[in-house]
């Protein structure tokens, strides 16, 4: 994989073909969120949206832990790296963008979770589109237990993603849950053996990358743009985004490839 210069000391960003891998890299603090890390995350999501060859991103954590939440002291002070400080000044709301709360990437993001994904770690997971979790992983939104509030957006997003009573259980009690319980709630897609989350996420990413990129992006945008709309208005948005995909060169290539019994060669055209 190619290490990209947008990486920061606490966030490693690598690309391999159509897949971008973003690694929270602060293992000495269980990958707790810092300003340095959030600048790296925000930069990675902007890169994923802007780079035509990137079709999907994976978010993971270094050395067996996804993310243990916010390091309030580290988030409250700027990075010690002058280059990262300069980038932070150029990215408005980099905290929210890094957390996938604002301006999420136009390409899907897959979580690959080992170990702890708690508080801000679970909030990051809730901001992703597909989720692969190791069987001994621990998830949870602990904020209410500490008289805090989940500012990453989970109080809004979680009840829209899983049944209301499950969402309120997690949000109001602050209790930790296992990977198996997260799967039973519909919070994650797959539970895999420990140490296999990233490999499984890469397999899933390759499946997504093999789909038509225009179709994938339009489906993702349709979901986001129709939140809160009544069905007739939502279907109008769906048509506006869907018909250009149907008429694209990629759609013609998909039909040809099916007829000729070969893998399609999509070009996002």
UniProtKB/TrEMBL annotation:
<dbReference type="InterPro" id="IPR018376">
    <property type="entry name" value="Enoyl-CoA_hyd/isom_CS"/>
</dbReference>
<comment type="similarity">
    <text>Belongs to the enoyl-CoA hydratase/isomerase family.</text>
</comment>
<dbReference type="GO" id="GO:0003824">
    <property type="term" value="F:catalytic activity"/>
</dbReference>
<protein>
    <submittedName>
        <fullName>Crotonase/enoyl-CoA hydratase family protein</fullName>
    </submittedName>
</protein>
<dbReference type="Pfam" id="PF00378">
    <property type="entry name" value="ECH_1"/>
</dbReference>
<dbReference type="InterPro" id="IPR014748">
    <property type="entry name" value="Enoyl-CoA_hydra_C"/>
</dbReference>
<dbReference type="InterPro" id="IPR001753">
    <property type="entry name" value="Enoyl-CoA_hydra/iso"/>
</dbReference>
<dbReference type="InterPro" id="IPR029045">
    <property type="entry name" value="ClpP/crotonase-like_dom_sf"/>
</dbReference>
């Amino acid at each position: 994989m190619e290490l990209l210069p947008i990486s920061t000391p606490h966030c490693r960003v690598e690309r391999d073909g159509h897949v971008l891998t973003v690694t929270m890299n602060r293992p000495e603090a269980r990958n707790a969120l810092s300003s340095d890390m959030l600048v790296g995350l925000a930069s990675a999501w902007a890169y994923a949206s802007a780079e035509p060859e990137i079709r999907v991103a994976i978010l993971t954590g270094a050395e067996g832990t996804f993310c243990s939440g916010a390091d309030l002291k580290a988030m409250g002070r700027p990075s010690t790296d002058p280059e990262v400080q300069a980038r932070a000044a150029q990215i408005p709301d980099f905290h929210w963008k890094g957390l996938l709360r604002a301006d999420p990437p136009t390409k899907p993001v897959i979580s690959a979770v080992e170990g702890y994904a708690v508080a801000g770690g679970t909030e990051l997971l809730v901001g992703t589109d597909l989720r692969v979790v190791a069987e001994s992983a621990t998830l949870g939104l602990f904020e209410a237990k500490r008289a805090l509030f989940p500012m990453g957006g989970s109080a809004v997003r979680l009840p829209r993603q899983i049944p209301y009573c499950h969402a309120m259980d997690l949000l109001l009690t602050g209790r930790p849950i296992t990977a198996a319980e997260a799967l039973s709630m519909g919070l994650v897609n797959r539970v895999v053996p420990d140490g296999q989350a990233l490999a499984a996420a890469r397999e899933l990413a390759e499946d997504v990358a093999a789909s038509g990129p225009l179709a994938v992006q339009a489906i993702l945008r349709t979901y986001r743009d129709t939140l809160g709309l009544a069905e007739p208005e939502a279907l109008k948005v769906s048509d506006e985004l869907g018909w250009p995909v149907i008429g694209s060169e990629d759609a013609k290539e998909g039909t040809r490839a099916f007829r000729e019994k070969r893998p399609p060669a999509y070009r996002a055209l």
